[in-house]
Amino acid sequence: MKFHHIGYLTDNFNKSYDNFKILNYKKKGKIINDDLLQVKIQFLKNLDNNLIELVKPYKKNIGLNNLLKKKIFAYHFAYKVNNLDKSLKKLKKKFEIIVNPVPAKAFKNKKVAFVRMRNSFIIELIQK
């Protein structure tokens, strides 16, 4: 597993970007609409190539909107994996799978999956 990005929930891309701009983050690419995952995504990158994924949930995405209401903003770490199925098989012994593998527009339709740790923090796995 190789660390890829931090997922950060927002209800306003511009306000969130203004905050991260102070930390030398710049927009990377355009806003991505992912109807399958029910989110809009804007990546931010700094000079050290650290990535933040701003995630704005669609109104019907109840789970992520509930996290926003609780003011939980940094809510997931993402890792690239060589074999998504093998990684999920290993992690599901300790974590709960909350999103089975699905193609993600943000990663050129490579599959992603999400697991929840016992402390409720979320891990995203991205197929290399």
Descriptive report:
The chain is an alpha+beta fold. It has one domain: Roll (2,3-Dihydroxybiphenyl 1,2-Dioxygenase, domain 1), CATH 3.10.180.10. The chain has 3 helices and 8 strands; from the N terminus they run E-H-E-E-E-H-E-H-E-E-E. The longest helix is centred in the first third of the chain and has 9 residues, at 13-21. The termini are close together.
Low-confidence spans: pLDDT under 50, at least 5 residues? Answer: none
What's the CATH H-level superfamily name?
2,3-Dihydroxybiphenyl 1,2-Dioxygenase, domain 1
Number of helices: 3
Average pLDDT figure: 97
Helix content: 10-25%
CATH class, named Alpha Beta
Number of strands: 8
How much strand?
Answer: over 45%
Question: What is the element layout, followed by pairings?
Answer:
Elements: E1 2-9, H1 13-21, E2 26-34, E3 39-45, E4 51-57, H2 62-69, E5 74-81, H3 84-91, E6 96-104, E7 110-116, E8 122-127
Parallel strand pairs: 1-4, 5-8
Antiparallel strand pairs: 1-5, 2-3, 3-4, 6-7, 7-8
Salient structural properties:
128 residues, alpha+beta, 2,3-Dihydroxybiphenyl 1,2-Dioxygenase, domain 1, 8 strands
Short description:
The protein is of the alpha+beta class and 128 residues long. 20% of the residues lie in helices and 48% in strands.
